[in-house]
Amino acid sequence: MSRRFFHIIKSEKPVIVDFFAEWCEPCRQIPQILKEVKSEMKRNIRVVKVDVDKNPLIASKFRIQHLPTVMVFQNGEPRWTRVGMVHASEIKSALREHVNE
After folding, report:
1. If you placed Cys at 68, which of 17, 27, 32, 78 could pair as Cys (CB 3.0 to 4.6 Å)?
2. Dist CA 3 CA 70 (whole Å)
3. What does pTM read for this prediction?
4. By residue range, what is the domain housing residue 49?
């Protein structure tokens, strides 16, 4: 997953990464929120889920200490991060504000 993950986030199109764990109850709500974002956004975005228990090196690299954590990457660089529950409107706003068109 590690090589593939780093290849994916180098994309010019925004990549939303959902850092989660199976045992994390709030993490179970994030996929539905991201599905809403993906269906409503006009831009071409990608959504990736990363289980921090199965991918500790990725979690460590981006200093994921609390779950859920949602990050937006573009061209390999983190553009926006939110820890805890997040609303679809907040993610869409972040995409408009922090991502290079």
Report:
1. 27
2. 20
3. 0.93
4. 2-98
Residue 97 buriedness (CB in 10 A; 0-12 / 13-18 / 19+)? exposed
Peptide bond into 26 cis (omega under 30): no
Q: Is 27 a catalytic residue?
A: yes
Query: For position 78, which CATH number holds?
Result: 3.40.30.10
Does the structure show a pLDDT above 90 at 40? no
Whether pLDDT at 98 is above 80: no
The contacts of residue 71 (CB under 8 Å, 6+ apart) are 16, 17, 19, 62, 78, 80, 81, 82
Q: For residue 24, indicate whether it is catalytic.
A: yes
Choosing from 27, 64, 70, 99, the catalytic residue is: 27
Are 27 and 68 contacting, i.e. CB atoms less than 8 angstroms apart?
yes
Catalytic residue among 24, 41, 83, 88: 24
Range list of H helices, 1-101: 2-9, 30-40, 56-61, 88-98
